[in-house]
């Protein structure tokens, strides 16, 4: 028997999950193992068993597999043998004796530093679940936490630390990402102007249609910092949202106005930025990071309902490039690395190829 659920007959004893055997490049042999005979956990106390439906593939998931992402405890401790995957959506199918979330409720399990969404069943404490309203689809709910809430949090941090009324211009790198596109949409909704840096022009028109005010294509403008100052009439941007690091992040940081904010939320290049002492001293810029797992617990409960409203109003419309079964994970990783990827890649966890 699994938990105290009357649905015990619907819950198998074994499941399929994607396990990290050793840290390394996802395509390398022996890094990942698709285990079709993993045990299904048994909920107890206030725990619930979630039958996972969909889970996305994020850049941070790729960094987890490589062994670089410190947001997952096992990466910090250098302990392979776990299931990656930062988020996903599923249905409660079994309960511990003290659980209060009803059977059949769709939820987003908040996995935090444990990760583990790339499997068919996840056991979590009920308080770690966000219940999903009926008017939010499974594929939207699967992407609820990492990108949309990060976008909301980033904008709230900018509004808290700089005056976006006095200077409404912000700059973001990796603007072609799912998060970058959501930032364009939310900024437009809040009357904030965006300068968006992308690698190639393949998605330029798509970003314009989303409401991007200015788009800079790196491969066409090697001195794009000058363009930023031209657009802002020599003032610079109020804030930078940065996900790459390296020379790109360094140049973005140099585009800040006096008293501007550099807000790092990713490190896709794996390389640090260089910050000018002159900018720190004479422009009094502020450089800080944003980590959703630290920001979210400090927020009031209505922040999630506010997020659902952004989906209902069409401000956020996640773009999905493809949905793949878990056993096609190598294909998913290959698609994730494509330069002109146009949307999120989702794993479908309850069907086979």
Element layout with pairings:
Layout (H helix, E strand, L loop, with lengths): L13 E7 L11 E8 L7 E11 L1 H8 L6 H4 L12 E7 L10 E4 L11 E5 L3 E3 L6 H4 L3 H17 L7 E4 L5 H12 L3 E6 L5 H7 L3 E4 L6 H8 L5 E6 L3 H8 L2 E9 L12 H6 L3 E4 L2 H4 L6 H11 L7 E6 L3 H8 L7 E5 L5
Q: What this model shows, in words?
A:
The chain is α/β, with parallel strands linked by helices and 353 residues long. It has two domains: 8-143 and 318-348, Quinone Oxidoreductase, Chain A, domain 1; 146-293, Rossmann fold (3-Layer(aba) Sandwich). It is 27% helix and 25% strand. The strands form three sheets. Strands 3, 4, 5, 6, 7, 14 and 15 form a seven-stranded mixed β-sheet that branches. Helix 4 crosses helix 5 (178-189). The longest helix is centred in the middle third of the chain and has 17 residues, at 145-161. Mean pLDDT is 93; it is low at 1-8.
Keywords:
single chain; 353 residues; alpha/beta; Quinone Oxidoreductase, Chain A, domain 1; Rossmann fold; 7-stranded mixed beta sheet; 6-stranded parallel beta sheet; 12 helices; NADP
Rg for CA atoms: 21 Å
Which sheet architecture does the biggest sheet show? 7 strands, mixed
Reported by name, the CATH topology of the largest domain is Quinone Oxidoreductase, Chain A, domain 1
Q: What's the SSE pattern?
A: EEEHHEEEEHHEHEHEHEHEHEHHEHE
> Which overall shape is indicated by the principal axes computed on the Cα atoms?
globular
Number of helices: 12
What is the arithmetic mean of pLDDT? 93
Report the strand count.
Answer: 15
Please state the structural category.
Answer: alpha/beta
Q: Which superfamily, in CATH terms, is the homologous superfamily of the largest domain?
A: Medium-chain alcohol dehydrogenases, catalytic domain
The CATH architecture of the largest domain is Alpha-Beta Complex
* Uncertain ranges: 1-8
The CATH class label of the largest domain is: Alpha Beta
Give the count of structural domains. 2
InterPro entries: ADH-like_C (IPR013149), ADH-like_N (IPR013154), ER (IPR020843), GroES-like_sf (IPR011032), NAD(P)-bd_dom_sf (IPR036291)
Pfam families: ADH_N, ADH_zinc_N
Domain Enoyl reductase (ER): 30-347
GO molecular function: NADPH binding; oxidoreductase activity, acting on NAD(P)H
């Amino acid at each position: 028997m699994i938990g105290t659920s009357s649905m015990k007959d619907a819950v198998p004893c074994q499941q399929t999950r994607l396990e990290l055997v050793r840290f390394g490049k996802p395509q390398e042999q022996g890094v990942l193992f698709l285990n079709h005979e993993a045990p299904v956990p048994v909920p107890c106390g206030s725990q619930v068993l979630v039958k996972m439906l969909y889970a996305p593939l994020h850049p941070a998931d790729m960094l987890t597999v490589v062994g670089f992402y410190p947001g997952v405890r096992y990466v910090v401790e250098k302990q392979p043998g776990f299931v990656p995957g930062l988020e996903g959506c599923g249905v409660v199918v079994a309960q511990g004796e003290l659980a209060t979330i009803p059977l059949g409720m769709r939820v987003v399990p908040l996995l935090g530093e444990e990760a583990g969404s790339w499997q068919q069943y996840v056991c979590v404490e009920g308080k770690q679940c966000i219940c999903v309203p009926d008017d939010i689809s499974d594929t939207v709910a699967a992407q609820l936490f990492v990108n949309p809430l990060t976008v909301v949090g980033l904008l709230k941090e900018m509004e808290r630390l700089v005056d976006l009324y006095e200077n409404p211009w912000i700059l973001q790198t990796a603007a072609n990402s799912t998060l970058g596109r959501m930032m364009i949409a939310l900024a437009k909704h809040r009357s904030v102007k965006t300068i968006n840096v992308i690698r190639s022009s393949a998605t330029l028109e798509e970003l314009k249609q989303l409401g991007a005010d200015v788009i800079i294509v790196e491969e066409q403008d090697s001195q794009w910092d000058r363009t930023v100052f031209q657009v802002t009439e020599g003032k610079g941007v109020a804030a930078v949202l940065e996900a790459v690091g390296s020379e790109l992040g360094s140049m973005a940081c140099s585009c800040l106005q006096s008293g501007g904010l550099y807000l790092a939320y990713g490190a896709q290049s794996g390389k640090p930025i260089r910050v000018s002492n002159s900018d720190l001293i004479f422009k009094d810029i502020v450089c800080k990071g944003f980590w959703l797992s630290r920001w979210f617990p400090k927020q009031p409960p209505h922040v999630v309902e506010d997020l659902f409203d952004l989906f209902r109003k069409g401000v956020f419309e996640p773009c999905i490039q493809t949905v793949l079964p878990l056993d096609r994970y190598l294909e998913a990783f290959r698609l994730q690395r494509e330069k002109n990827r146009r949307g999120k890649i989702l794993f479908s966890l309850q069907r086979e190829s």
